[in-house]
Structures are given as structure tokens and as C-alpha cells.
Amino acid sequence: MIKHQLLTAALLLTAAASPAQSSSSWNNKQCAVVLTYDDAIDVDLDNVVPALDSFKLRGTFYLIGSSPVVARRLPEWRSAAQRGHELGNHALMHPCDGSLPGRGFVTPDNDLSKYTVSRAVSEVRANNVLLSAIDGKTARTFAYPCGDLTIGGVRFYDQLQNDFVAARGVRAGLQTAPQVDLTNINSYMINGQSGDYLIDLVKQAEKSHTLLVFLFHGVGGGHALNVDLQAHRQLLRYLKNHEKDIWVAPMVEVAANIKAAQPGVPATPLR
């Protein structure tokens, strides 16, 4: 009960933080929802893109440049970008900090704790070159592999801020536009939750005039972190049915809107 009361109070405080200002940042709607999909896996193209296209919704796909699914299905990724989906940068090799607990899956070659900052930056920039060759765009966003921000205590993204509109992290939370940290945007990682849970998050965002970012991996299989196809489709149907109140757009567009509203920060041309 106490936990529920604290959550309600937090949402009310967030809603009180300039709803008109947030509404203008959300394309004059009540809230913004960004659908992000990590790791460049087959189900992105087999399940997710067709589902999004069927509802005329657009998402952000964070691609690992070294993924065989990128190499094998380049024309399909290019076609998805041409239909308005964002191809985001999830690093060339998806390095994660293997020194942290529970990171037995990290190989020595891809252990971020053994990287130098310059190596991490170079690999991310190399992936940008690859992505630009696929979609012809220069404006895009980044997603931290495993949500890891630092190498030896140094935030490597500090050297990449001019390369991206924004970066997405893995910390959960709803935020109004002025509260959003464009170097580490909040997101809700989804793994097995129901369609009702997903829709309830959207309803909270509507009430509090905030940004809601979903972080998906597998959709209908294909990854250890997974959401049921029906639950995902239930979410898309709700978003489509309430599109007069909810702005659903790729991360690069939403982040550019937030950035444009920040004083002293030049707008980023979306090309």
C-alpha cells in the first residue's frame, strides 16, 4: 500500500511539472511513446517491422554492426528505414562490462572493462558509417550495450555527444521533457510482461504528460528477453486507437523535439 501511494504521489508531482510545456515537446499530444528494439535479430524483420507497418507506427531498431542479421538482410533494413523506422547505433561489437556481477556471458574480446575509451568511441563511430551506408542518414541515436556508461570511471559517450541526437539507457522511469537527460534516456526493459502491463505504462504516461520508452529484445521469440507476440500487438493496437493523444515516433524525432526546446541548444536537422 505504501509503495503504491508513493508511486501515485510521484506521478502526480511529475504531472504537475509544466504539462503545457511537455505537450508542445510531444508534438502537441499528451505524451510520447518510443518503441525501441535491440540487437538486430531476425524477429525484428520477421515479426516487429510487419506489425508496426500494419498499424502505420514507426520504431527504433538499435543495430549491432557485427550482427550477421545486419549483413545477411541489408536490403530489408534499408527498406525499413525508407518506411520511417530509425536504425539506431548499438555499437559495432556490443561490448559489455564483464567485471560486473552476472556478466558471465561477456567474452574477453567484447569486455568493455578491457576497452580503452578511444577504442569504444572508434567502434561506435565505425558503426555510424555502416548505418549511414544503409539508410543514408546522419542523424540518429545511440543505445548503451547492457546499459554500461563508463570505462574505468570515464563516461565514453562524452566524446560522442556531437555524433548523436541522444542516447538511450536502461534505467526505468517516466519523465517530462525538461527532466529528460539526452545522454541517458530512461527506458522500460520488457521481459515477459503482459499486454495489460504495457498498456498501463502508456496510461501512466498519458496522465503525467511524460516520455515513455519501451526496450524490447525478442518479440515472439528469438532472444532470452522476450515479449509475447499477442502482448506486443495489444500494445500497438492501443497506441493506434489513441493516436490523437499519444505521439508514437522514433527516438531520433522525439529526442530532437526535446533538444530543440532546451535553451541554448541548437536543433538537430533530421537527415
UniProtKB/TrEMBL annotation:
Q: Which InterPro entries match?
A: Glyco_hydro/deAcase_b/a-brl (IPR011330), NODB_dom (IPR002509), Polysacch_Deacetylase (IPR051398)
Keyword flag Zinc: no
Pfam families membership? Polysacc_deac_1
Query: Which positions make up the signal peptide?
Result: 1-22
The chain positions of domain NodB homology read 31-249
Q: Keyword set for this entry?
A: Signal
- This chain's protein is named Polysaccharide deacetylase family protein
* Annotated organism of origin: Hymenobacter lucidus
